[in-house]
Amino acid sequence: AGEHLKAQEAQILGQEICAVLYPGDDTLEGKKLRLRQQYLLCSASIQDLMATFKRRQLMHKGRVNWDEFASKVAVQMNDTHPTLAVPELIRILVDEEGLTFEKAWTISCKTLNYTNHTVLPEALEKWPLKLLDELLPRHMEIVRRIDSDFIASMKPLAGESQEDFEGRLAKMTILENFYKQPGDDSEDSPAPLVRMANLCVIAGQYVNGVAALHTEIVKADVFNHFYKVWPDKFQNKTNGVTPRRWLAWCNPELSAVITKWLGTDSWVTDLTKLKGLAQYAKDPELQKEWKAAKVARKEKFAVWVKEETGIDIPIDSMYDVQIKRIHEYKRQLLNILSTVYRYKKIKEMTPQERKEVVPRVIMFGGKAFATYVQAKRIVKLIVAASEIINADKEVGDLLKVVFLPNYRVTVAEMTIPATELCQQISTAGMEASGTSNMKFMMNGSLTIGTLDGANVEIRQEAGAEHFFLFGAVTEDVPKIRADRAAGKFVPDPRFEEVKDYIKSGVFGESFEELLSSLEGNEGFGRGDYFIVGHDFPSYLEAQQAVDEAYKDESRWLESSVLNTAASGKFSSDRTIRQYASEIWDIEPCRVP
């Protein structure tokens, strides 16, 4: 009685843990909160599915047979954020259900699977061992046991020396900087870390990437040491998106045209039927209806943009869109540099030359991680450039630039159906898959992009002539970076021209801190790690090809129809069927 604060303690802690989504992890408190959130979600999910399993076992059999658990339950760990599901499942089986560690480990290895969604090192989480020991001491006992047993099970590969084996094993263990070698007692030794991705691979029955190229990178690079030991563990499951939301629901005008020409709406549940559109791609009547559907979505979208930003975007302009998380590897910087170059060239043209310019509205949307300073600088440049360009009466409607505010699913549902050109321009080898590229394709947008992620498969399905390709390929990127470090890179004059133009202060400031990342040969935040300078010339050439194609309306509409017709592979229905049959081992349950 009277202990009011103590009575509210649980509620206060609950509110605290849920108050901030994606807390910054650049501070110790941020790391603690992020780990607590991860554990809360993992523990709640594992406890719920175990309680459900027990309830059904008792109902149907009168007792709980844990040997049947893995045949009834599959857990898919998406990236490393749910990794704590591994020790949590084992903890409950051992501490609460009384199983031996060996049996609990066997069950967990048949239940858990891991999907890798990124090759970026910062997304393959590594947590300080000291922090995890503090927050989850019992779980870390289990992790240490898993790591110890894993090390004991490893043997040199055929022809592998003991030194090479030890070097390989050091990269595969869950605990990093933990197992001291002779002479490693220096006070400067790095603090021990817990490699969550390694725990996922060791514990998972299957590991998959999310696009064909990405999976090859996972096998050849990210987890190559594991792949050499367990090649059968690794699979590919190319991502997909639901056509119900991303075409049928968000683009009713185009959906009506598709249904009319196919003579059925069954494509909504069997997207492969869209290929039937291909035979009509050149038909003038279909092209007329296809264009009308696109214009209808552009008109609706233009009203929303005006309401949200105050910017008028002409319906007759090409709607050119890049909507992605703001990140240097996704290269919004490459896009805005090209946009500024386009602006500068238009200003230098004579009135007669401007008549040949294809009008464009270039739009950006996306959010950045709270502590990602360089991403914020990119957004600042985009917004600063848009303010000057949109107010320039000399350029007028030939070029508009819009940063779409508060980008989210609702905004995507309006943006994607109105888009005519989508930008998928990440540095080759760095995008796992992408899914906006699939949504745009379904809605008849053409793509300008690199051979990265699912772009490779999109280009294969649509045909090379209906995809605007540019840039280095994955295999060439390491050499490009090495040449840059060696001082061999010679920038294109147009690249230097646009950087100098921005530095002149035309957009209110010089943006030196941002542009310095594109300069120098190597070093943190220098040396153009994402090869923007290398790809800039081919990007400009691809953009010129886009302009020429857009001038030929019939050709553009044909390509648009063929992109939609070829998008059947990218339905989430196909993806889920593959997970179900090849990883989860479940059959469809037909509704009577």
Defining traits:
six-stranded parallel sheet; four-stranded parallel sheet; 26 helices; 8% strand
Provide a compact summary of the structure.
The chain has helices spanning 4-18, 28-61, 69-72, 85-96, 101-111, 129-135, 137-153, 162-172, 196-203, 212-222, 224-229, 243-249, 252-262, 284-309, 332-348, 351-354, 373-391, 409-418, 436-442, 455-462, 477-485, 493-503, 512-515, 532-551, 553-565, 572-584; strands at 75-78, 112-115, 126-128, 175-176, 193-195, 207-209, 234-236, 318-323, 360-365, 399-404, 421-424, 446-449, 468-469. The protein is α/β, with parallel strands linked by helices and 592 residues long.
Beta-strand content estimate: 5-15%
Helix content: 40-55%
Structural shape: globular
Instruction: Show unreliable segments.
Output: none
Q: Tell me the total number of β-strands.
A: 13
Query: Pairing-aware structural class of the strands and helices?
Result: alpha/beta
**Structure annotation, total helices:** 26
Largest sheet: 6 strands, parallel
Determine the oligomeric state from the structure.
single chain
Strand order of the largest sheet: 10-9-8-11-12-13
Kindly report the average pLDDT value.
Answer: 95
Structure description:
It is a single chain. The mean pLDDT is 95. This protein has helices at residues 4-18, 28-61, 69-72, 85-96, 101-111, 129-135, 137-153, 162-172, 196-203, 212-222, 224-229, 243-249, 252-262, 284-309, 332-348, 351-354, 373-391, 409-418, 436-442, 455-462, 477-485, 493-503, 512-515, 532-551, 553-565, 572-584, and strands at residues 75-78, 112-115, 126-128, 175-176, 193-195, 207-209, 234-236, 318-323, 360-365, 399-404, 421-424, 446-449, 468-469. The protein has a 6-stranded parallel sheet, with helices on both faces. Strands 1-2-6-7 form a 4-stranded parallel sheet. A 3-stranded antiparallel sheet has the order 3-5-4. It has 592 residues and is α/β, with parallel strands linked by helices.
